[in-house]
Design brief:
This protein has 99 residues and is mainly beta. The chain has one helix and five strands.
């Protein structure tokens, strides 16, 4: 991700992450989340969906993942619980089953 403009030099409406007075704008908070040490995301793959966990921290990430799906009618599928330990690695993928 490339940050085009971090801050403004004077009060103006722009794409900057910090305004001219040093106040953080919503983009700043989105950037902070996207650069977090740990991230869970669901990505489309050729076989369906994959849960991708990224751990850039120096310590292992121990977690139990509870994955719930909801259709457009509001009906939930049962939770899929998966105990997992993620050591420091670029990314780890786990396939989500679609019943």
């Amino acid at each position: 991700m490339i940050v085009w403009q971090l801050n403004d030099c004077w009060p103006v409406i722009s794409w900057a992450a910090v305004d001219g007075d040093g106040r953080r704008k919503p983009l700043w908070y989105a950037l902070r989340r996207s650069y977090a040490d740990r991230l869970l995301t669901i990505q489309p793959t050729g076989a369906g969906l994959a849960l991708v966990a990224v751990n850039d921290s120096t310590s292992p990430w121990h977690a139990t993942l509870a994955v719930n799906r909801q259709d457009f009618h509001g009906t939930f599928t049962p939770a899929d619980l998966r105990p997992s330990t993620l050591r420091r690695a670029p990314a780890r993928r786990g396939r989500l089953t679609q019943d």
